[in-house]
Amino acid sequence: MPSHTLQAYDEELKFLATRIAQMGGHAERMVEEAVAALVSSNEALAQTVIRNDRVLDEAEREIDDKAVLIIARRQPMAIDLREIIGAIRISADLERVGDLGKNIAKRVAAAGQTRQPAKLFRGIEALAELALTQLKDVLDAYGSRSVGRIAAVRDRDEEIDAKYTSLFRELLTYMMEDPRNITACTHLLFCAKNIERIGDHATNIAETVHYIVTGSQLPVERPKEDESHKIVVAGD
To answer: Which stretches within 41-181 are classed as H helix?
Structure first.
């Protein structure tokens, strides 16, 4: 974090960083609780997650408003401007992570109508663990302004995509084996996709942190898609 002789300016920049940290912690909890609600069919916990989404919505607006005021009053340049623009970008990604957690929570009731094998829920949990580890790592990198692990975090998105593709195939198989599974498995597919997208937003944050610290953009070329669109169901 840059340091200035004008204490008020420093405090304004610290405010943005602090609010981002708070948003990150809240987004992580929302996803953790949404997945826990899904696995245990806990509709009360799911409703709590849904209600808590407004906290991130309000925080994003607060950061946007504060950033605009800082730019207008301080006319920042170089690293300061990157800090401010980076805060806007990261808050948008975190708000979207909250939305994805809320979307998972909204499907808890429907997904729990027909109980699926524990193996499927273990797959959902494993996918969520990968995505949340990704998110925690990039938030740590933002807090420390360290780019040492950014490349590894960015590359690890491929692992999340591969896990999602495997889970997609498994859920599809269960639907083919028993039509009674179609409704619940369809909702689980949407939940899995939401988790995969959380990994994408974590990768976006990693790229933003790299830009804040170095002033340069990471190369555009990187795998950004899962392989589920290539899966074809063979006819009898």
So the answer is: 43-74, 78-106, 108-111, 118-144, 150-155, 157-177
